[in-house]
Every structure is written in structure tokens, then in C-alpha cells.
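Question thread 4412

I'm putting together a teaching handout and wanted feedback from people who do this every day. The idea is simple: show students a protein as raw sequence, then show them the C-alpha cells that encode its fold, then repeat with a second protein so they can compare. Below is the first pair exactly as I plan to print it.
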Amino acid sequence: MDKFSYNKPKLKIPKSPLQKALDILASIAFAAGIVHLIAVWGQLPDQVPAHYNGAGEIDRWGSKWELILLPTIAAFLAVFMTFLEKHPEWHNYMNLNEGNIEFQYRNSILLLNVMKNECVLLFVYLNYQTVQVALGQAESLGILFLPIFLAVFFGSMIFFIVRSIKHK
């Protein structure tokens, strides 16, 4: 391996309008999820769904206080992934060279941004749907939840990996 592989340059790459828009959308959804949880807190039973199986059916019940875990995890992931977005020189690349480094950094940053915001939206949806189940307004996540989530999440990864490979 050459020296370039180990000492990747640090480039100042500003957020694109798409990244800013995705961050704003996820932030609004996150805030709305917190407001919703606070608004319905008094109506929630002591026991709420705490885990779902692959078919979206409840397989464990727990304290309503466990609902605080979902936004906490979402916030932690958002902060951590935002930090990683700012350091594309730490990311792992295939075929990185001086001719494609800026594209590869931008691609990697956008991948992280998209996945970060998908994670936040996932946790907001899980919290909302769990509240709906606890209040008797829904029965489960639904059988399509997991396949749709996996298709979106892995679809994003595949899109950005293919994009990276095409720009050797």
C-alpha cells in the first residue's frame, strides 16, 4: 500500500442543501415525536410493547419508561454519526486516489447523512407506533415494517457503494 492510503488528507467539505434538508426533516420529526410522547404520557398504560419480532408482533411488554430509550438511542446515533460525517478521512474507501478523493469524501459523507436520518426516522416511527399499540389504536408494527425498513436501509447502502465503485 502506498503512503496515501494511510495519510488521507483532511478536506473542508460543507454540507450540501440535500444534507441540510434531510437533517432539518429528521430534526422536526424527532422533535414532533418527543412532543407527541409527552402529550400522551398520562394516557399510556403502565405496560407498553417493549419489543417486536420479525413479523412486527409484540413479543415483550415493559414499563412505559422504556419508551424514553428510543429517542435517547436516536439522539445518540445522530450525534455520533454527525461527528463521523465531519471526518471523512477516517472512513474506509476502495480505490481512493488524488483524482477522486473529493467525490469519494462527498459520497461517504452523504451516505452517513442519509443513514443517520433514516435511523432517526426509524426510531421516531417505532416510538409513535408503540404508543399507538399501547393506546389500543394499532395491533402491531405490521408484517411489512421489517422488509420495508431493510429495503430502504440496505438500498441506501447499495446505492452509495455502487456510486463509489463507479467513480474509481
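The second pair follows. I'd like the answer to focus on this one:
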Amino acid sequence: MKFRVLDTFAGAGGFSLGFQLAGADLVGAIEIDSWACDTFRYNHPEAKVIQSDITSLTDEEILFHFGNDRPNVVLGGPPCQGFSICNKNNGDPKDPRNSLFEEFIRVGRLLDPEVMIMENVPNLIKAKTESGELVVDIIVNELKKIGYFVKYKILEATDYGVPQIRKRLVVIATKKEISDPFPPKTHVIGEQSDFLRVGMPKCPTLWEAISDLPEIEARQGSEVQPYTKPPENQYQKTLRGKSSQVHNHKAMNHSSRLVERFASMVWGQSTSDVPDHLKPLKRNSTEMSDKVYDQNNRRMFPHKPCHTIAASFYANFVHPHKNRNFTAREGARIQSFPDTYVFLGKPTVVSKKLLGREGRTDESYLCQYNQIGNAVPPLMANAIAEHLLKCIEDVACLSTETILSKKKITKQNILVEYQKNTLQKSA
């Protein structure tokens, strides 16, 4: 079976890329954000990319775009805000049937693919509606209603060689029942003795993911630049591929005070640990801020996997050795994007609230950091795709054997019946 993939809520295309690495053809993508669409088109020129709010696409439009070039796999990560699990203070959790998840279901109902895969935040597994129903149970039942066998599981990115502690809920729906559609663990975290003992390769550390990239300080780097050193391990060789230069490796324009703050921090420390005179100031003021967030600007350990690369990771982490935040390319490496994958749009943007106040809503798009942080790590997606393809092929083989077996039994019954009739006549 050849996978033909349509990616809904596609973002920059990390989910699609993982399937493409497994040999899939990309039929297309549906994504609302302009800059994310630019990135998807640039890196997947063969795919039909529909830039639109999926809720505004009619059934006829979806069938017009993808009905004749029908996918057999539909991917999607409907935003979790509709499930009311990101905001702990929300006392009225919404039913996913009234959220963007229903659009994912609608696409499945219209195109009837063999496989539908949804990924989302792991907390979704605990979320309940106001009436006490588990959100994940509703999702499973809605997929079953349109003809699928459904299973779900929380997957950890480090289990598949992604140098990042990142858990995601993955829901897999298939037309034919598969006992375990989720990929087995392929990597381990630990010392040399650990992975030799279990017979699996070691998951790369943060430093093993990014150490070969050009060394730049705050305010240095550019959108395109040459490599300055050779790759130092297999992970780096794999992600470099045939790339001849580094894209998206521009350090943020930190102030000298912020650089000084970072310089005071050791591995594991964050903004809350710096000396008082270096702590953040209130906006447009010389007074110290009374809000210091423990998770902001934490200096990462080089010899461990990175913490979760979120959409706002430009302010989450400090480079293990440099006094600056990560570049977009370092984030992409940690997410397991190859260096040939180029992110378009601006590296960062100011908050939507500020853009609105300043009348700059035309800049309210997903910047490079947002696109990277929102993505499904391609290596994890690739593990899902390769395992699922094998499972489907195995099920197809079993189905063929069953049919042949039934035919054989039928022939045997006819033969026995013939022999019985012949004996009766001769008697």
C-alpha cells in the first residue's frame, strides 16, 4: 500500500514530512496561517496547499480539491483550545463535537480514507466536558461512527530518537482493525551501557543535536550562512543530508542587560535564579517586575535531551554555552527537522494584542519559532508511518490468506460431498 497523505491543520508540515520520509506521497494540506502555508509550499512543492479557515470550506470545495486525488491517510492536529484543557481556570469545558475536531471528522466523512491520525496535547486524555464525559471517549466514538477502529496512546519523542522530552497524544483510526498501531520504542535515554544492554541506539542529547551549527553570539548570524565545521555524529549527518548551507540560524537581538543576565546563569537555572539587579524590569519602567516566571529563559543541560520545544520557545530556553536564546534552526534540529527544511516568514513577531493595538494585524502570523514549536517532530511521525504501513500490509496479507483458506475449505467440502454421493450411487 502506498500512503497518500492529506494534512489538515498542517502548520509547517512536520507531520507530513515524517510520512514522506516513509515513502508517502503528499496529496495536499489545509492550513489557515499564511506564513506556515509559505513554508509548507516551499518544502513540499508537489502538494496542493489550501490556505483557508477549514470551517469556511464547504463540503463541495473539499471534494473539488481532493475528491479526484483522494488521500488514503488524513492527518490533523486540531487546536486544543476548543477542548478547554489549556486553560485550567476554564470552568466550562466544551464538547469537542462543537470544536475544530468536528472539522477533522468532516474531512474523514467526505473523503473516507483508510487511516485517520490525530495528535494533540497529552492532557487531553484527562479532560472532561461539563457533563463529566471524557473528551477522548467522545473523540473515539465520533471516529467509530464514521466506520473506524480507534486506538490512542501517549507517545514520547525521545523513544524515537528526537532529542527532546515531548509527550503527545496520538489517536489512530483505521478501516481494518490493527491490534497495536503504535510504533515500538527505537531509542533509549542513558549512558553507553544502557543502550548496549537493551540493544537500541541512544537518543541524542541536546548538544549532540546542535553542536556542529555555526557558533554565534547574541545579535549575530543570518537567515542563510555556510557551515563552519563538519558534522560530529550520525544525527547531525542525517539532518544535514545534502544541505550546503544553514538556514534560519539568526540569534535574537538581546540587550546587553539580558546577555549579562544569561551570563549569570548555570545549567538548570532560569530567570528566577539570577541576582536581583539582573531580574526583569516592568514594561517601560526602571522598576523591578514583581512577576518572575520560573520557566522563562532556563539554561538547558547539554548532556540531556531538551525540554519541550513549544510555540514560544524563543523565550523558554537559554543555549547551554552561549548567552542567548536558541535560534530557529537550533529549535528545528531539536525537533528533528532536516537542515534542508527552510522556514519562511519572520523569525519572531510581537504579541497579537500589541499588533492589534498598533494596527499591524497583517503581521499576525505564525513566525518561524511558532511554526517549529507547533510541529509534530518528523522523526516521531516517521516512526508512526513506518510501523503503521507494516501493520496494514500484515493485515492485508492475513486477509488474503483467510480468503484463500476459505476457498480451500470450500473445495475440500465439495470434494468430500462428491465422494459421498459417488459412494451412495455405487451402493
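Top answer:
Good format. For the second protein you could add a caption like this: The CA atoms of residues 39 and 344 lie 5 Å apart. The longest strand covers residues 149-156.
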